[in-house]
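Collaboration report, partner site 2.

Our partner group contributed sequences for two proteins of shared interest, and the home lab folded both. The records are reproduced in the order in which they were received, starting with the first partner submission.
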Amino acid sequence: MSATSGQKTGDSRPGDDYGENLAAASILVIDDEPGMRNFLTKVLTPRCKRVEQARSAREASGILDQAHFDLVILDNVMPETSGLDWLVEQRRVGLFADAILITAYADLDTAIRALRAGVADFVLKPFRVNQILNAAARALDRKYLRRENYLLRHELSENCVAMNARLLGNSPALQSVRDMLARVAPLPSSVLFTGASGTGKEVAARTLHGLSDRADKPFVAVNCAAISPDQIAAELFGVIEDGTRRKDGLFLHADGGTLFLDEVAQLPQQVQATLLRVLEDHRVRPAGAERDIPLDLRFLFATNADLHGAVAAGRFRADLFHRLDVFRIEMPPLRERSEDIVELAAFFMSEFSRSLGLPKLDLNQEVLLKLSRHDWPGNVRELRNLIERSVILGAFPAEFSGAGAITGAEAIETLELVEQRHILNVLDACDGNRAEAARRLGVSRKTVDRKCAAWGI
């Protein structure tokens, strides 16, 4: 009986909406019957990104050796082998696509074997156009829902505080970072973020992703130092276990989006070699697989280590370093952007008061002055942790507390207080040398003396 038996007029309209996942999908149709192959190709082609067909299991295997598909639709009854036997074998060598089985016989044994082989859905012959389209759309929707759930669990396991963070501040040092992000965001080039711990490398990477044409695709952050050396290859590149069970890995889950590898200097040597091949070929081969899978990824990297020193010491591959170091952005320490401390403190105060359900502490002019003059060796992360701890305890530590009368927006924005914080920060940077501070400020020494006298310094 024809697959289109009982089809209603209008079932195959190209304008039917079966979702964006189907529209972006690549699908391989496998069937020995020319009529069924051509029918499925005709139905799917207007609604999908790419559709190819194979006349046999052998031809399908050859196609899969050269290209990757999101979904395969295959007949179970074929001359050389059954669709299920072929699928089990392909899972073993590295088939990461979902599968829909077309069959005229839905007995219990076939159903059990199909579940074990990882079939996403059955479509019984005869079927209508909308049945196969709905099955394909459902399978793809579930595929991407699994990816979203996996990435959400990954974000939670990373205990990521940068997910909703922003690059706050208007200091020249930070504006320079913003300018470089805007310049490189539209390009496919890799970016290496360097700088001390806590300077906001991941926040900058997320900002770059948000400015790029991949903004609506996944951003996957991986702390290479947080994964054990014996597990990191499987976590990144995926693995096929026991010939059938598969783990896609973070590279495949991030496909189409941006992958951010933090603490990249901590990668084991063998993983460095594999990463180099991925960067050169834009393909990944999961452990245990016999096929490479093409990747559409933008790579961002970060480190607080001296990569030149690591290369010289033999801990980091020189060829990999040169692949990473295409475009470098150095994140400034907080002491070099002291103008931003007040804005950051106010933002963190509001954030933690809301998330913890606790009252805000007064950011008066004395507290803000002490915060702005602190050296912050732990950078933005140290400031953030201090504000969170203070909100929980209901008071600032003694070295930051103060009883100033001016609070809130007035303490943050009043020109005289802004000027005081700026001059004293410059004076601190000059180790108290007023003549040098005056030179950097572009004012006379007498002006600095007069201001300091008025402030009782």
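Second partner submission, folded after the first:
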Amino acid sequence: MDIRPIFSALRRHKTAAALIVIEIALSCAIICNALFLINGRIERMDRVSGLAENEVVRVQLAGIGRDDNAEALTKADLASLRSIPGVKFASATNQVAFNNSSWNSGVRLQQDQTHQNLNATVYMADDQFIDTLGLNLIAGRNFSSDEYQEWEAINKPDTPASIPVAIITRSMAQALYPDQDALGKTFYSWGNEPIKIVGIVDHLVRPSDQGGPTAYEYSMIFPIRVHYNIGGHYLLRTEPGRRAEVLKAAEDVLLKNSPNRIVLEKETLEEMRQNFYRQDRSMAWLLVAVCVALLIVTALGIVGLASFWVQQRSKQIGVRRALGATRSQILRYFQTENFLLASLGIVIGMALAYGINQMLMGKYELARLPLYYLPVGAVLLWLLGQISVLGPALRAASVPPAVATRSA
């Protein structure tokens, strides 16, 4: 098809054509960045935790006043919790994933380093911690019985903290010892004594986003038995269908053991994950709504302009039909015209998309927009343009030559 008549017609309608080009350009720029942000939120929500999320429940307690018998009471609590029907494992720990509050510590490879190699979160574990959370130990071993220490024992004023061994995540191991086997090597974190890596788990997430995406799995497990006043988290692993039943029984057991405590939270790990990513989910849906609204507005603009041009060009259409133009040729004319306008808008929109991304990178530490989002946005708008113009183009192609000519 000769496109010179199309350019000639567009020059006579510069304002309307420019408005459509600008609308498509803005839609392209915003949609490309919005799709990038949506994908980032989805990837963040889909991150692997390494936990048996569909089996683990959490009960969090807080004591009323000072409890000098917290250590003994915690042991009694665990014995009672492990005897509940349906409970496979139970553990007391200082923190739990998806909780937005974490214990963190700097990690060094040499004792005399002035700067840390990385910052990692610290999980304190008893003998059932690995099994309770369902962690996958991919190298090394679990702690032996003689390696566990009591929280109170390592926090005496005259006794410096000394943690001889630790289990760390694969991500942390690779960060500390890239291209090496970290098992058996040491690092420094608590105190001045080296901590030997005796085991490596596949995944274990941090409770919060401290450190950013790269530090999401910088986690280490110390063999320290904590009592309920240190975090107050009791974790229980059960069958998925018995979680509600176990939660109710666990609350009853804990309050029966000591009424001088209150239950702060009781929930499944899946519920904690849902709450943790609630804002990400809301933001993703908001961006989806923005994209849909922009596409609708753009489509309506294309339909409105094409309908207006069909009405204004009735004589031109009639003359072409009288001279032998087929319905398909009239249809292709309007589709080609829209494709050219959309292409110009998309080219401008791609440049705007890159500029917006650069601005967001500078102000909000957003990652660079991958180039493959630009053709995705382009194809989406090209398809939208062709679908939107199809209705007015079909109406133009269906006008009988005689009627169109008489309407001049």
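Feedback sent to the partner group on the second submission included the following. The radius of gyration is 32 Å. The first helix runs from residue 4 to 11.
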